[in-house]
Design brief:
This protein is α/β, with parallel strands linked by helices and about 525 residues long. It has helices at about 5-15, 20-30, 30-35, 40-45, 60-65, 75-80, 115-120, 135-145, 165-170, 190-200, 220-225, 260-270, 290-295, 310-320, 345-360, 365-370, 375-390, 465-475, 490-500, and strands spanning about 125-130, 150-155, 180, 205-210, 210-215, 230-240, 280, 285-290, 325-335, 400-405, 420-430, 430-440, 440-450, 480-485, 505. The radius of gyration is 26 Å and the shape is elongated. The N and C termini lie far apart (about 65 Å).
Length: about 525
């Protein structure tokens, strides 16, 4: 058989196999499509050398573990020899992960890395306090446990009449990053918030009611959403009890029986589509505000809304008139008791604040009704519903996710993490980036990206690479990053994780050295 006839036979063999997917190959490798090359010919002569997959139903890595001495295109070897020897083309999960049917959206999120890099400080959390000591303690304990260490936390006691408040707040004065302020006379909610905004200097701020509870990664996700567009003014998360900002349904949503906020919030983050629905207003129970917007339109109107209720709506409408955007972060879930401080005065305050807002902005009610009935918001709520349902399933394990950046032959070591974490694996050659899931010996590809320009070995300055890594870290709710080799662009993953507020380590040693760092899962 001549060389040409042998090549022709090999190409026919791949052509007849369902494992080579021509359409998929061209979609995954746009450079091949742009060059007008025949996909099978490219794979046989170039693609397999470059680590390109022939189709979604063949896993080259897994096959090479079974057949390590292959010296030809792995799919061709499988068709000629491996299949007859009992080799497996692609492993399959024995138990499908709980999130598989609600996996994150494949659409590429906007790049936030450049805007994040320009932030000079982490946001300042402002917590006005007035009475309700038990709710305040739950709130501050959760903030202490789950807030990024780069944040300042300003606790402003607006002359509480509850005698338990002063000794309670004194317990937090020594907490790193916490600052406690006490008013001699009651000023009201809105002047107190404006005071906190001034104390924050030039940092972005997060207004947080003292009857809320937060969970892991809440600041990081709100901050990411706030940097998703240059004109974002505010970001409000979902809640179990925040009116129109509640999920899975407007109003009050008790957490499923037998679950915890930590578990529910983690499941919601992992299932989120990161739709970031746009709405005309935020909600002050937990609202991230960009400093650039405050500089542009000023603070809250404390003359018209001295006690609260309506002040954030007025602020957001003023911002919207200047082209600023208001988003819901559908990946963050905050527990809210609601109005623990105002008690029986709530209804009167609501009516008074609503009357001012409606008189100033006649179209406000229509805009709110239209935005909160939009299909994208319902899709986001549906994902919350699916996640909460899974939290009640005894077969579902809602685990924190670790991203391991390591070589293929070390992937089996990842198995040691499976009891406490869900393991994702990142690999990248000069041009092709792949994110996968690894469990019980099964590697499953989750996402792939081919860089427009290849990476250079002596430099990690690559905007496209940074944008994709950052998007994957946030899109897949990675909570910890582990890097095991010194390739420059792999170390860059740690730098990006730090920028996003995600913990991570580098180690030459075996994966067992990571065990001591798994305390973060508690």
């Amino acid at each position: 058989m001549t060389k040409d006839s042998r090549q022709s036979a090999e190409e026919r063999l791949l052509q007849e196999s369902s494992l080579f997917n021509t359409h998929w190959y061209l979609l995954q490798n746009p450079d091949v499509a742009a060059a007008g090359m025949e996909p099978i010919h490219h794979y046989l002569h170039y693609g397999w050398h470059e680590g390109r997959e022939p189709g979604p139903e063949f896993d080259t890595r897994y096959y090479l573990v079974q057949q390590p001495a292959v010296n030809m295109a792995p799919l061709l070897h499988y068709l000629l020899y491996g299949k007859a020897q009992g080799a497996i083309a692609k492993p399959h999960w024995c138990n499908t992960p709980w999130w598989w049917s609600i996996t994150p959206t494949s659409a590429e999120p906007p790049s936030c890395t450049a805007r994040l890099a320009r932030l000079t400080a982490w946001p300042t959390v402002i917590i006005p306090v007035y009475n309700a000591a038990l709710a305040v303690k739950k709130c501050l304990d959760s903030v202490q446990a789950f807030t990024h260490s780069g944040c300042r936390v300003l606790i402003i006691n607006d002359a509480s009449t509850d005698p338990a408040i002063i000794p309670l707040l004194k317990q937090y004065e020594a907490v790193p990053g916490f600052e406690v302020f006490t008013h001699a006379h009651n000023k009201g909610y809105t002047p107190t918030v404006n005071e906190g905004i001034a104390l924050a200097g030039q940092a972005d701020v997060i207004l947080l009611n003292s009857d809320t509870c937060v969970s892991a990664g809440w600041v990081q996700r709100l901050r990411w959403a706030a940097c998703s567009h240059p004109k974002v003014a505010t970001v409000t998360p979902f809640s179990n009890n925040a009116g129109a900002f509640s999920a899975p349904a407007p109003g009050v949503n008790p957490l499923p029986q037998g679950t915890s906020l930590a578990e529910c919030a983690r499941a919601i983050a992992q299932a989120s589509g990161r739709y970031l629905p746009q709405v005309p207003t935020g909600n002050g129970f937990c609202m991230y505000i960009r400093r650039a917007c405050l500089d542009d339109i000023g603070c809250f109107d404390e003359q018209a809304f001295p006690r609260g209720y309506g002040e954030e709506n007025d602020f957001c409408m003023r911002a919207g008139a200047q082209g600023w955007l208001h988003l819901i972060d559908d990946s963050t879930y905050i527990e809210h008791q609601r109005s623990a401080s105002f008690g029986s005065n709530k209804e009167a305050l609501l009516r008074a604040g609503g009357a001012v807002v409606n008189s100033r902005y006649p179209h406000y009610t229509h805009q709110v009704r239209q935005a909160f009935s939009a299909p994208i918001l319902q899709q986001a709520r549906n994902r919350v519903d699916a996640a909460l349902t899974q939290c009640t399933n005894i077969n579902s394990r809602i685990l924190p996710r670790v991203l391991c950046v390591t070589t293929v032959n070390k992937m089996h070591l990842m198995q040691e993490l499976s009891a406490k974490t869900e393991t994702m694996v990142l690999s990248c050659n000069a041009q092709k980036m792949t994110l996968g899931h690894y469990a019980k010996g099964v590697y499953t590809q989750l996402a792939i990206h081919t860089l427009t320009q290849p990476l250079k070995s002596l430099s990690h300055q690559h905007e496209e690479y940074d944008a994709v890594i950052a998007s994957w870290l946030m899109q897949w709710s990675i909570e910890f990053v582990y890097v095991q080799n010194t390739v420059t662009h792999h170390l860059r993953v740690l730098e990006l994780a730090h920028l996003l507020g995600i913990n991570g380590i580098f180690s030459h040693s075996a994966i067992s050295d990571l065990r001591q760092f798994l305390l973060f899962t508690k």
